[in-house]
Design brief:
Chains A, B, C, D, E: Keywords: Bacterial microcompartment, Carboxysome. The structure is a homopentamer. By secondary structure, chain A is mainly β. Chain A is built from one helix and seven strands; from the N terminus they run βββββαββ. In chain A, strands 1-3-4-6-5 form a five-stranded mixed β-barrel. Strand 1 of chain A pairs antiparallel with strand 7 of chain B, so a sheet runs across the interface.
Chain lengths: 93, 93, 93, 93, 93
């Protein structure tokens, strides 16, 4: 999984019906191994399954595992927010 | 998922029959975390499942989830356009 | 999927029996978003399922979808050539 | 699989129930092909299935295989620590 | 698939039991599209299913297809050596 920050939202009316009812959030990956400010990031879109909001630090599952969070194996999503991070401790030694 | 822009089309007559009937569009990934102009992008090909056209901003699902959009688990596609983006709001704080 | 160019062939006698009968081609990814000449590329190996030859521009499916092209879910391949590209149109605006 | 070093821990109370009971560790990839110090790394999060602790060198499985370690195909995890490395020998010729 | 060179071995006593009996080899990806010497590589770990040894040039399958080589869908591996390369011909035009 990766940690990310919710940076925004996306809306799409013309879409696969199986996606109806899902909230799509734009997520910036956070990597505690870098100087964040100087490292451009590829934002991606995740379906929200944790009630996340703009600015929240979230835990994102990607790939085939993402669908298991939405509990519908036919939903065409490859990234899902599965949790809102309370705290994270990272040492840099 | 990722957001992309449809940049073109691809045709292939000699192909796996299971791909027959699909439209193949060339997509440029868009990442709201970068200065787009200065970041070269790896374009890729996606099967269209939302009626997208050249220039449209689209939502693309990749990996094993892509096949669930085409509703045929045997179709050898690893990227599918699942929606046409109405709007996207991204903050950069 | 991605577009690639067939750059060569690979032979392996000592291999998983389930791979027997497959042709392995070396593929260079082509990304219409870059100045090709100046961008080094990671070549990879794909099983051929379209009758491709050296120099052909091909359409490649990767990941779990690749096996669906070979129509044998037990074949350990993660990249398959699923088509030979007739033409591709890409705008750069 | 990849080799990594456990750099920290992550806690998330508001999360997918199917993740309950799992320990989430922050992992820095280690690549014996680089001068580690000068190569920034994208840390990621893995569920622990080997009893790993901070500072341990671990073996991590990612993608759909990760769920098979947790022996529950419905758990939305895409990275699992499957072993604690005793030793690793790498030549650089 | 990718071509790699076996650079070493890894041992882990405390690991998922489903991994017991597997040999873990450290692999350096080889990409015929680069000047190898000047391109740092992320080494990774693959389970050996071809009887490979240190220094061998090997064919590696990654992702969900890897498990199909080990013929046990429950083994948590995401990379398997499926063959030892006899020869590879790559043109650079």
């Amino acid at each position: 999984m990766i940690v990310g920050q919710v940076m925004g939202s996306l809306w799409a009316t013309r879409k696969d019906n199986k996606l109806n009812g899902l909230t799509f959030l734009v997520v910036k990956p956070i990597s505690y191994g870098h100087d964040e400010a100087s490292t451009p990031r590829d934002y991606f879109v995740a379906a929200d399954n944790a009630g996340a909001g703009i600015g929240d630090t979230v835990l994102v599952t990607r790939g085939s595992a993402a669908r298991t969070s939405i509990a519908n194996p036919d939903v065409p999503v490859d990234a899902v927010i599965v949790g809102i991070v309370d705290s994270i401790e990272v040492s840099h030694e």
